[in-house]
Amino acid sequence: MSNIVLYMSPGSCARVSAIVLEELGLEFESRVVRFMKGEHKQPQYKLNNPKGKVPALVYNDQALTENVAIITYLNKLHGKLLPETGNELDSAKQIADLCFCNSTLHPLVTRIRMPSFFAGDENAKRVQDIAINAMDEFFHLIDDRLSHQDWWYKEQYSAMDAYLYWCFWRVQGAGYHVDKFPNYCEHAKKMEQRPAVQRAIARDEQAAKLLESEGLLFKPKPIKG
To answer: CA angle, corner 132, sides to 127 and 134, nearest 5?
Structure first.
């Protein structure tokens, strides 16, 4: 049994942590949390994540939650996930970049992908439309930055690219026209060519098949209007 366990659910932002673990070449076990059964609210799971969410990473018997913290911790242990910096300010700026994905993009992603969860079926379209309009500004920012470089940090691939990729992938096909952002689209294609990303996607797909076989795969409701 691996001494690294990633608690995840298919489609969730736990894919970000899966990608960085794969990029580091670490052996880890991915365990599916069955949200439709309420496993995320059970005391046993809350020992690892009291917030009842994913991801939760158990590393050498110690639990850690939140992608920003997981990435920062793994980078301190193994390096390779973020560019080396010569001062604390630049390191803080990298954390700010990750927080941009976590606290700015991610909330809009969920409102585009699952607006009914926040507003009920009758108001879902309105919530989605507001989120789409808000997201455009930030996707333009990302697209502009990627217009003259391959990755977020110029020519150096990083965990920031993994998080940006998940945000892109999650809204793609959910009523958001990603084709308005050609550089971001190209970034996603390059991400999907990386073996580590392909392995993380395969884990996600395997988890989805497992839940579907159990009748526990969550599928967002169609949006009215």
So the answer is: 95
